[in-house]
Amino acid sequence: MIDYINVRLNEWARWVVSDRATIRNMLGAKNCWPQMLGEADSTESVRQVGTLVPLNDIECCETDKAICGLPKLLIDTVVEYYTRVGTADMTAKRLGVSKKTLFLRIDQAHQRIMGNLNDIAAGIAIHRNSWRSTEYQEARSRRARALVAARQLARLGKKPLHLSD
Fold first, then answer.
1. Is 84 strand, coil or helix?
2. Do 81 and 13 share a structural domain?
3. What is the rounded CA–CA span in Å between residue 64 and residue 61?
4. Which letter does DSSP use for residue 131 in this model?
5. Quick one: pLDDT at residue 53?
6. Alpha-carbon distance 11 to 53, whole Å?
7. Which DSSP symbol is given to 132?
8. Looking at the structure, do residues 114 and 72 belong to the same domain, yes or no?
9. What is the Cα Rg of the chain in Å?
10. pTM assigned to the model
């Protein structure tokens, strides 16, 4: 767990559950997780954190954009872990994973959020899961399988068929 990212995500979670939707929209944040929070809003399971530290809307918006650049699985994990009340065991149970898997996902999310925040600071646009589309992943898998097959044929001394890009 990266402490700096943990602090930013805790601040982001307070920002998300607070009544700051108009600011969030004015700053251009496009929520990639509203359905999860919408489910939580109907109960009292949304984390209510006091406002001892003022929220920085710009930092929270950047964090929001960095989160939206994650794969859906990690977005769901971050939203559950940081915005919902409960222990790690309860969160893992809600996600249907073990506690170990929960913390592995949180760690992976922290690493990727740090990278996305660095990209944002450098002026590089964060694309919301566009390169992670199912079609892209399937095409990549087909290409990888074809390359493995070509290598196996080459080891056997046979000439592989032409692989088109």
1. strand
2. yes
3. 5
4. G
5. 52
6. 9
7. G
8. yes
9. 20
10. 0.64
99-113 CB burial, b ≥16 within 10 A, e <16:
eeebbebbeebbebb
**Whether residue 120 is found in the same domain as residue 162:** no
Domain that holds residue 107: 3-130
| 3-state secondary structure at position 108 | helix
pLDDT tens digits for 18-47? Answer: 765 455 555 555 556 554 554 444 434 444
Q: Tell me how many domains the chain contains.
A: 2
Based on the fold, state whether residues 59 and 77 are members of the same structural domain: yes
C-alpha separations of 118 from 20, 30, 54, 92 in Å = 25, 19, 23, 29
Report the distance separating Cα 65 and Cα 116, nearest Å: 8
122-140: pLDDT as tens digits:
988 877 654 444 444 555 5
Answer whether 149's CB lies under 8 Å from 160's CB: yes
Residues, the chain: 165
More confident residue, 39 or 156: 156
Verify that 123 and 153 share a domain, yes or no. Answer: no
Contact 7, 60 (CB under 8 A): no
β-bridge mates for residue 27, sequence order: none
Tokens of 96: 């249907």
